[in-house]
Design goal:
The structure is a single chain. By secondary structure, the protein is mainly α. Helices cover about 75% and strands about 0% of the residues. It has four helices and no strands. The protein has helices at about 1-15, 20-40, 50-70, 75-90. It is globular, with a radius of gyration of 15 Å. The two termini are about 25 Å apart.
Length: about 100
């Protein structure tokens, strides 16, 4: 999962896609923060993909709550920015099965 995020980060840099690049950097920062916390507990391997997934879920939840708050306050441009970040983060989430696949 880290490799996918870093590859997307490089692609966003090459494409000069500032909003996407910013979101990908936030994802990397959150993962690195968790890596540091895990290393201080004696685990040198860093965080596993399952933990990265939990970080992404938390980031999505935070942004959705922020977007709702911004909408209620009439700050639609900020709400749209938060929702755009949610879309970028969701790209790294496992695809959900639809009813036809279940």
């Amino acid at each position: 999962m880290r490799d996918r995020i870093n590859t997307s980060l490089r692609e966003a840099m090459k494409a000069k896609d500032a909003p996407r690049l910013s979101t990908l950097r936030l994802i990397n920062a959150a993962i690195k923060d968790r890596d540091i916390a895990v290393r201080s507990d004696g685990n040198d391997a860093g965080v596993a993909d399952a933990e990265i997934l939990a970080i992404l879920v938390k980031m999505i939840k935070q942004r959705q709550e922020s977007a709702t708050t911004y909408e209620e306050a009439g700050r639609l441009e900020l709400a749209e920015k938060e929702l755009a970040e949610v879309q970028v983060i969701r790209e790294f989430m496992p695809r959900q099965m639809d009813e036809a696949e279940a």
